Amino acid sequence: MKVPIVNTEPPPEFGELHASAAFADPDIMDHDHTYVPGFSELRLARDRAIVEVMQGKRRAADVPTLPHNFRWARCQTRAGEPDNRKVIRAGNRGYKAVTMNEVGEGKLLATLPPGAQTAADGTIRQGDTMLMVADAQRVARNELQKRAKTESAIRGSEAGFAAALAEAGGKPMKGASPYIKKELGQPVRAELNPKSKSKSE
Q: Which segments of the chain are extended strands (E)?
């Protein structure tokens, strides 16, 4: 009588793990070091909606808006010394520090971000950063100002190129005007142990 061979092995030390849809989900919070409970989920939902707009599956008007924006502003040097330059810069753009008075059911934050701690002044810290928030209207204003500055810099560069071309005696082709074109370079692959080339190469 032949008995089939059964492969056996001891169970894992911490038990069995059955793969689920969340197992390989790149959006789960342990992949996001800036995770803020509640807000990060809204941000991901908005990002997905924007992708659907680009795919033609959703109207742009149906993309959800965020009521505010959180950011972690660095408040220490690498040596652990206080350094509020980033905090001041964020404050100049309408951001304010989030305090424990704004954490709780029905408040700005329902719970603290994982691993976050409360400083003596009530602010929320995570490592060398401080949690700050700005309302949607101010964030939109910041974005428009940034775009306006970028467009102004591009126009200035184009005008400068045209002036330099004219000074050098060059003339653009008929119907063409100077412009700036940005191109990405070829991808570079880095290897820890690159193979040496053969003599025939």
A: 68-74, 96-97, 117-118, 124-126, 129-135
Distance CA 130, CA 122 (A): 11
pTM of the prediction? Answer: 0.64
Tell me, yes or no, whether 56 lies in a domain: yes
- The answer to whether residue 118 sits within a structural domain is no
How many other C-beta atoms can be found within 10 angstroms of the C-beta atom of residue 70?
21
Q: Which residue has the tokens 């959006």?
A: 27
126 contacts 113 by C-beta, under 8 angstroms: yes
Give the whole-angstrom CA distance, residue 135 versus residue 44: 18
Residue 5, burial from CB neighbour count under 10 angstroms (0-12, 13-18, 19+): exposed
Q: Is the pLDDT of residue 101 over 80?
A: yes
Q: How far apart are the C-alpha atoms of 98 and 12, rounded to whole Å?
A: 42
The verdict on residue 156 lying in a domain is: no
User: Where residue 199 falls among pLDDT bands split at 50, 70, 90?
Assistant: very low
Q: In terms of residue numbers, what domain contains 56? A: 26-66
Beta bridge mates, 126: 129
| Residue 113 within a domain | no
- Could you give the number of structural domains in the chain? 1
